[in-house]
Amino acid sequence: MRLAQAAVAAGVLAAATVAMAQESGIRVRSIRVLATGPVEIATFCEKAFGMSETRRPVETPTFTEIVINSGSTSELARKATTTPIVIATRRETRRPVQWPRSSSRYRISTRRSRP
Q: Going from the N-terminus, what domains does the chain have, and what CATH number goes with each?
């Protein structure tokens, strides 16, 4: 159940961020989801949403970072122009966390049009 909630949260965050970016000219560079089980979250997103893993920039015994994107194969996901989702390890805390912590990175153009 927690896995499904995490995936839904990531999907909602991604959709809302993209919708906001289209209206304001802001480009979303990536969406980061911190979870205690990043491999399980990535596997769920791959199966539920047809996404594929593009790379693992960091993989150590204590920290894993997995980048996934839209595409039925890794090759298609690497070529996709959609916003990638980065799923990274979040250490467990004593307090239960209902949703994984998420953050978004934006690229904002500083050019202004002159009247």
A: 2-107 (3.10.180)
3-state secondary structure of 46: helix
Token readout for 34 is 């911190």
Sign of CA dihedral 98, 69, 13, 89: positive
Q: What are phi and psi of 25, to 5 degrees?
A: 85, 5
Residues 6+ apart with CB under 8 A from 14: 31, 83, 85
In the predicted model, is pLDDT for residue 33 greater than 70?
Answer: yes
Q: Cβ distance 97 to 10 under 8 Å?
A: no
Distance CA 104, CA 115 (A): 32
Output the pTM of the full model. Answer: 0.61
CB 87 within 8 A of CB 11: no
DSSP state of 98: S
Q: How confident is the model at residue 75 (pLDDT cuts 50, 70, 90)?
A: very high
Return the percentage of the chain with pLDDT > 90, whole number. Answer: 28
